[in-house]
């Protein structure tokens, strides 16, 4: 993830970095973003994207929001607009890592070979994927001179307060008096969100905590529909900021007040596994008036997340963990009980990854000796190999353990792990048992485009959307005497049926996509999705895309279209090959 320098604030993954606020809508709709703010209102906020998971059931919206921030702990602050008094719990950053892994869009090619292709060993392989609330009826009204504070409490590393937003100035004054700061430019934008019955949730770190203690939060509140208060993000958003949202419910989620876009997959760089995916989405949604549109990246059963976070036996027994009295046995119990994740991200292959909350707890109670950190031994490496470091390595290098501190309370550490790791992870896993369907939507927005808060609803009539996209590429090796994968003529058929003809070969891996310069719509269909029925197609760009590809084929071949009309292009490519062979014969004679 992006690491930003001091006083630069990052809200990633519908984690929300908004100046927060409640949209002035007639319906009681959910808002899920907030704003990270420094105490100095002149310091700019930099937002690098949003990521959030909504769950909606029985009039209650549950929002899992990832909080990310880089800077001094005393300068962390976060505001979140709420339509009702919320309940707040801790979440887990593993949720978003797993959601991304399970629903990430991928673009892969099935390969076919005509003739004796020396590179036929790739047959059948894909090209990889693109990594590409309580009742508020008794809360009362904030009379003149009354405090806007509704409640103040703490959870995990956070100190939080719920404030009435019936009037702007009393709320801002309270925030200022109590160390919850708002950035310059917020006061003007927040006006649209101030209304009777509105609330703000304000967070900051409790004293003694560091930014490393930040972890996702889970907020539940009464609301008819999930909504993102994107308008306030315009205060300091990045250009083309990515907004990624998952919605768990009974049916497929739709952007209720935004358009829906199906991208033109002929614009995708299939040869590089969709490496230009985000650019295509950005350009595609920009073709909509106001640039207000979402792409559905996955829509289908939520069972893709079943037993991912909460598989049986995970985390073992907290009683057994609390009974481990030595540092080695305690950490090894964690290592053997499903706390760390694994990925192919180490120098020797698979290496463990610990959630930030786990590392924060372990480094607080069983800190890594400073001499090891000076040697670039990471905390994750130390804890994963603690038997070695506190055994053989320590015996051989006793001078590196002068500040070793292994005096800890296993009961206390186990309780912290229960609160900040085990319970949040199991609760997140339960969400996919409570909701049968999962949708993932994505868009990009620049500050000047953040003029309407997206609201999400559901449509049971819409089909599933797979996140795995397959195209077909056929190499015609019999057309060349010494074929290579880079120079062999090929035809690629995209999932949507568009034909890309590479009469001179696909080029090397570092070459620019030959079709990158083709001027054509980046959106295939622009649609309106309603709460029932099929999509209403507003714009169908099929003909324009086919014409653009046809013209590109002609220009590439001196006016002679070699793509053919068949699904494989074999006839025209065979003709092209015969011409080459005839040329060779004449030269050889």
Task: Provide the fold topology.
Blueprint: E1 35-36, E2 50-57, E3 60-65, E4 78-82, E5 87-90, H1 94-103, E6 106-114, E7 149-155, E8 158-164, H2 168-177, H3 186-189, E9 199-205, E10 217-222, E11 241-249, E12 252-255, E13 259-263, H4 277-286, E14 293-301, H5 318-322, H6 327-335, E15 341-346, E16 349-353, H7 356-365, H8 370-374, H9 379-384, H10 386-389, H11 392-396, H12 410-434, E17 437-445, E18 456-459, E19 468-476, E20 490-493, E21 499-502, E22 523-528, E23 536-540, H13 542-556, H14 570-588
Parallel strand pairs: 2-11, 6-19, 13-14
Antiparallel strand pairs: 1-4, 2-3, 3-10, 4-9, 5-10, 7-8, 8-9, 11-17, 12-18, 13-22, 14-17, 15-16, 19-20, 20-21, 22-23
Describe this structure in words.
The protein has helices at residues 94-103, 168-177, 186-189, 277-286, 318-322, 327-335, 356-365, 370-374, 379-384, 386-389, 392-396, 410-434, 542-556, 570-588, and strands spanning 35-36, 50-57, 60-65, 78-82, 87-90, 106-114, 149-155, 158-164, 199-205, 217-222, 241-249, 252-255, 259-263, 293-301, 341-346, 349-353, 437-445, 456-459, 468-476, 490-493, 499-502, 523-528, 536-540. It has 589 residues and is of the alpha+beta class. The chain has a domain at 318-431. The strands form 5 sheets. The protein has a 10-stranded mixed β-sheet. A 5-stranded antiparallel β-sheet has the order 1-4-9-8-7, with helices on one face. Strands 6-19-20-21 form a 4-stranded mixed β-sheet. Strand 15 and strand 16 form a beta hairpin. The chain starts with 34 loop residues before the first strand and ends with a helix. Residues 1-48, 122-144, 344-349 and 558-589 have low confidence and may be disordered.
